[in-house]
Amino acid sequence: MRVLYYLIIIPISYLPYRLLYFISNLLCFVVFRIIKYRKNIVFNNIKNSFPDMTVNEINIIMLRFYSHFCDLILESIRCFTISEEQIKDRLIIKNPEFTNKYAKENQDIILVGGHYNNWEIYGQGFSLFSNHICIGIYKPLSNKFMNSKIYKSRSKFGTRLIPMKKTKKSFEEKTIKPKMIVFGSDQNPTNPDKAYWLEFLKQDTAVAFGVEKYSKEYNLPVIFTTIRKKKRGVYEVEYSLITDKPKDEKYGEITTKFTNKLEEDIINRPEYWLWSHKRWKHKR
Questions:
Q1: Which residues, in sequence order, are CB contacts of 178 under 8 Å at separation 6+?
Q2: Can you say whether residue 75 is alpha, beta or left, with left for phi > 0 and alpha for psi between -120 and 50 degrees?
Q3: 147 — phi, psi (to 5°)?
Q4: 221 and 244 in contact (C-beta within 8 Å)?
Q5: Contact 141, 147 (CB under 8 A)
Q6: Are 239 and 225 a contacting pair, CB within 8 Å?
Q7: How far is the C-alpha of 214 from the C-alpha of 33, rounded, in Å?
Q8: CA end-to-end span of the chain
Q9: I want to staple 57 with a disulfide (CB 3.0 to 4.6 A). Which of 53, 86, 144, 275 is the partner?
Q10: Which backbone phi and psi does 201 adopt, to 5 degrees?
Q11: DSSP characters over the chain
Q12: Among residues 73, 81, 131, which one has the least CA distance to residue 101?
């Protein structure tokens, strides 16, 4: 991994964006046409999520997905050496005042979103626009070298990364400023027996219950994060309220609300979701 990092990843990360997207176009051809990376998984995920679509319509979404997926790979590599000025040009927070008003009230909050559009550039740069201490919950990589490099890259603008196993400690830690803790909501839960089950994209789906659990336990507002692709390499983020009174919500309601918001984003522009993920491998 050290050779890959120093001889391939870092040199690529210094390339201008025009050249990056030229490489992305070539990579898309290889991944989609030659390697056919997880093509059956992507096709079946889209087919099951949009059962009324024709094969031709599914294939169009697949091609757009692989194009965006390859952009995402190259843009994520670019993040290793991206500057603060560059990231501010490529990450637009449409309504930063929405979360910053809670910071003025010395209120911790929870942010929730999905693996939609470029969540990597958002996770790396959102702290630049926030008055909170920004904390991201993540799953460490098994390779210690790459884990340390990715940790350094994701945290270089102020975001703190907390391993999943220490999630509870991040809520109980006393800090000088209020905290904003970010969760990804759309991956397979580690333990499906403890998940909340609902219909998501017309399929029986297990959703991790952590956001709802911690919001109720610590009485924290929950904010949903929508990421839109304005053009290649430029993303706009908009915050919206799930609830500011979590203890008043019925069991499962918070989880249902943010899952429905993610579903709405995916239905609107399906090519930007991570269809290659084995999202539905768990059964109720």
A1: 102, 103, 106, 107, 108, 109, 132, 133
A2: alpha
A3: -60, -40
A4: yes
A5: yes
A6: yes
A7: 44
A8: 38
A9: 53
A10: 55, 45
A11: -HHHIIIIIHHHHTS-HHHHHHHHHHHHHIIIIII-TTHHHHHHHHHHH-TTS-HHHHHHHHHHHHHHHHHHHHHHHHTTT--HHHHHHHEEES-THHHHHHHHTT--EEEEE-SBS-HHHHHHHGGGG-SSEEEEEE---SSHHHHHHHHHHHHTTS-EEEEGGGHHHHHH---SS-EEEEEE-SSPPS-GGGSEEEEETTEEEEE--HHHHHHHHHT--EEEEEEEEEETTEEEEEEEEEES-GGGSPTTHHHHHHHHHHHHHHHHSGGGB-TTS-TT----
A12: 131
Taking alpha carbons only, the member of 225, 269, 223, 20 closest to residue 123 is 225
Alpha-carbon distance of 158 to 148, in angstroms, equals 16
Q: Which residue reads 């550039």 in tokens?
A: 121
CA distance 69 to 61: 12
- Using CA atoms, how far apart are residues 91 and 233, in angstroms rounded to an integer? 9
pTM to 2 decimal places = 0.94
DSSP-assigned letters across all residues of 26-59: HHHHIIIIII-TTHHHHHHHHHHH-TTS-HHHHH
